[in-house]
Amino acid sequence: MNSIPVDLSRLTGLLCVAAPEPKTDLDGEQRKDRDGNHLWVTGIAVRRAGTRKASVIDVQTSAEPEGVKEGSPVGVTELDVSLWEIEGRHGLSYKAASIYPKRSGSAGASSSSPLPGPAQRERGGKANGS
User: Fold this and answer.
1) C-alpha span between 12 and 102 (Å, rounded)
2) Is residue 130, in this structure, part of any structural domain at all?
3) What is the rounded CA–CA span in Å between residue 24 and residue 87?
4) Which of 21, 31, 34, 78 is close enough to 97 for a disulfide, judged by CB 3.0 to 4.6 Å?
C-alpha cells in the first residue's frame, strides 16, 4: 500500500472531535504496527484553506497523542493518506507521526511547534523532530 504525503499548509482549523482511543481488532485487542507499537486513532475535523466545508478524518498514530482532548485545536506532523481495498470495500486511511495539542490562539495546521512529549523533554528536543 503506497502512502501519499498530505500538504498540511493547505489545511486549516484542525480540531479534535473524537479523543484518542486504542485502535482495536474485531476481538477487541489493541492493534500494533510492524515495530510492535500500539496503534491509536483520533478523530480530527479538517478544512481546506479558503473553503467553508469541513471533513472529519480518523488519523492513526503509533503513539498515544498526549494532551489531546475532544474539542481542542490540534496540530499534526507527517500526515499521509493511503487508499485501501478489501473484499470489495475501499476507503482512505490516514496516518501521522504525531498529533499534538496547539496552544490557544494558534491558527493553521503547522504554524506552531507541538508541546514536547516525555521522550522529547528528556532529550531536550521538540516533538516534531526538529
Assistant:
1) 13
2) no
3) 20
4) 78
The predicted model scores a pTM of 0.76
Q: How far apart are alpha carbons 100 and 114 in whole angstroms?
A: 6
Instruction: Using the predicted structure, report yes or no on whether residue 126 has a pLDDT greater than 60.
Output: no
Name the residue range of residue 110's domain: 3-123
Tell me which of 20-29, 45-54, 79-88, 106-115 is least confident: 106-115
CATH of the domain at 38: 2.40.50.140
In a domain, 70, yes or no: yes
Annotate the chain with three-state secondary structure: CCEEECCHHHEEEEEEEEEEEECECCCCCECECCCCCECEEEEEEEEECCCCCEEEEEEEECCCCCCCCCCCEEEEECCEEEEEEECCEEEEEEECCEEEECCCCCCCCCCCCCCCCHHHHHHCCCCCCC
- At 55, which amino acid appears? S
Q: Please give the tally of structural domains in the chain.
A: 1
